[in-house]
Amino acid sequence: MRIRFRGRDFLTLMDFSRREIEFVVEVAMDFKRLWSSRVPHRSLEGRVIGLLFEKPSTRTRVSFMAAIAHLGATPLQLNPNVMQLSRGEPIKDTARVLDKYLDALVIRTFGQEIVEEYAEYMENPVINALTDLTHPMQGLADLMTIWEFKGRNRRVKIGYVGDIWNVCHSLMIISSIFGYEMWIARPKGYEPDKRIVEFVEDMSRRTGANIVFTEDIYEAFKDADVIYANTWHSMGGPEMEKEKRLRDWRGYQANPDTVSVAKEDYIFMHCLPGYRGEEMTDEIIEGPNSVVFHQAENRMHTEKAVLSLVVP
Ligand code: CP
Ligand code: NVA
Rounded to whole angstroms, what are the CA distances from 267 to 167, 255, 301? Predict the structure, then answer.
């Protein structure tokens, strides 16, 4: 089977087959080996890649900038507040102009339809660095981390606690494609987007994945290979209702009591930034099962893989 990436947008993992996602992670592992032995890998020399971030970011921004620099290309940080976008220039005009200067555009924004619009009006690839709906770059690094710690061919159980938002959606997509068990603990009333549910239900029928929502965190964490926590109040809509969420989500926390029902060798993952005392306690993120900083490192390797495959 021929895998073709060159020139493709990376807007959601729903656009890629299992084999294509595996290939990205395999390439990321090669980049990780090159990077750890300090072997230069400047396959994108001379290219210019724009980063347009409309929400805060530490990991995604810096890992992309480092990845672009290691690949020999130039990262250009585009501040939306000083662009004509801030005065109402339409996305379709901005996109066609940026396309003349850049070899790819990495965007972090609100609605998924925004990255879709850029992609529609740009010939060069658009890479989603987080929308409200999905966080595909996080999903790739999460899969790589699970493979590294739990093996590539295991049907793992993931016990997830945290906002039902981009990171959860991308992990649901990954779990459905790879036939994983994913148990999601959340208070009633917090439900996934129906575009994701439709995809995940259909995919799970084909792969045998099992994705379950529960109000019982112990049920979600029971015998889990992976405990995954995420904030209760994401950027965008949810942060407006932070006070309500702090009340609704009380107790939905990875702590020594709730994780005691997981497998003894479980790994603790978190996309970060994390809020100690809310979705997890200090003992858990700092404890021996935590792999959160390996996971954060893998952001750079998977982004390098995506860039090296899609940038023309
Ligand atoms: N996990 C993640 O995307 O982190 P940042 O918001 O810091 O980029
Ligand atoms: N769910 C989080 C992820 C941050 C990386 C948010 O969107 O705020």
Answer: 17, 13, 20
